[in-house]
Amino acid sequence: MNVQQTIQTINEQANGKISEVYLVACGGSLVDMYPSKYFLDSEAKKLVAGMYTANEFVHALPKRLGAHSVVIVCSHGGNTPESVAAAKSAKEKGAYTIGLTHNSEASLLNYSDYSFLYEWGDESDVKNNPMAIILELTVELLQITEGYAHYPAFQNGLGAINGIINRAKVQVEPRAQVFADRYRNEELFYILTSGASYGHAYGFAICSLMEMQWLHAASIHSGEFFHGPFEVTDKETPFILMINEGRTRALDERAQTFLNQYAEKVEVIDAKELGIGTIADEVVEFFNPVLFYSIVCVYREALANVRNHPLETRRYMGKVAY
Ligand SMILES: O=P(O)(O)OC[C@H]1O[C@](O)(CO)[C@@H](O)[C@@H]1O
């Protein structure tokens, strides 16, 4: 079943009474849900969205969860115990569960009423990757429950984003190499952005830099930067600023103006400069994170290579009990 058929079927089963959507996962899979949470918070008048790290969902189940809820659980490997447990808990409460995974043998599938076995890797079209599928699911849920005025524009964006990304990846390749050479000995990075992309600042910090490079990192919302964090700004501290196209661009540009004056180690990744502006104004902001994820992957690959620290290296995950 495709995205549209899945949502249509759930809507029929629930007699058109879906009132909330929960987005539940861990780590990188959770990060991929942030654009959908932002989208529903921004665009829905009635449909409520909740986003949970899976173990919190399991231990602190929301009281609203029930027969009018759709719970989307994503797990790349499909066997992360807390994500599987979250899907199980959701089913026990009578919710409709949608599981996304890259593993056809995933335990998650045992508790998924509907499932998507998604594509992964450099060769795949990003619209078949989990971030875009989850966004499409939430757009479809909004459209079917209360209507979404920019539905056609969103579908056009979905058709265009992969081409934009492929061109942008070529564009940033040399910059990523310069970045990696310049910052190869740094031990800490701050990642700034806003809007639908904030989850990917968090994701680049916790997954790409901390998990995959064992570097210290923190995400800072561009809007929050001026409410505490900017006090650490100096010429020695590296910042990576992802500038969105769309409504929150002003927040990112404000951070850029400040950093241009008081910092020296600033890497800017600007979605507009990378060509996202061909997507309609009404929906472009929701596609920034899809672009940024692919672009920061080029940066992390370059950094991993110069640091001689392969992205797969772990010291605890899968090696010790936790
Ligand atoms: O998406 P999965 O397979 O549930 O994995 C979650 C795990 O994957 C990562 O996101 C990336 O390895 C980890 O942070 C996390 O523990």
If you had to describe this structure to a student in words, what would you say it looks like?
It is a single chain. The chain is an alpha/beta fold and 322 residues long. The chain has 2 domains: 1-144, Rossmann fold (3-Layer(aba) Sandwich), CATH 3.40.50; 155-305, Rossmann fold, CATH 3.40.50. It has 10 helices and 9 strands. The strands form 2 sheets. Strands 2-1-3-4-5 form a 5-stranded parallel beta sheet, with helices on both faces. The model has no long low-confidence stretch (mean pLDDT 98). Bound molecules: 6-O-phosphono-beta-D-fructofuranose. Residues 26-29, 75-77, 80, 83, 207, 211 line the site of 6-O-phosphono-beta-D-fructofuranose.
What is the strand and helix layout of this fold?
Blueprint: H1 3-13, E1 20-25, H2 27-31, H3 34-43, E2 48-53, H4 54-59, E3 69-75, H5 81-92, E4 96-101, E5 114-117, H6 130-145, H7 151-183, E6 188-193, H8 198-213, E7 216-221, E8 239-243, H9 249-262, E9 266-270, H10 284-307
Parallel strand pairs: 1-2, 1-3, 3-4, 4-5, 6-7, 6-8, 8-9
Helix pairs in contact: 1-6, 3-6, 7-10, 8-10
The chain binds 6-O-phosphono-beta-D-fructofuranose.
6-O-phosphono-beta-D-fructofuranose (F6P) binds next to helix 2 and helix 8.
Function: Catalyzes the conversion of a range of fructosamine 6-phosphates to glucose 6-phosphate and a free amino acid.
EC number: 3.5.-.-
Domain SIS: 9-148
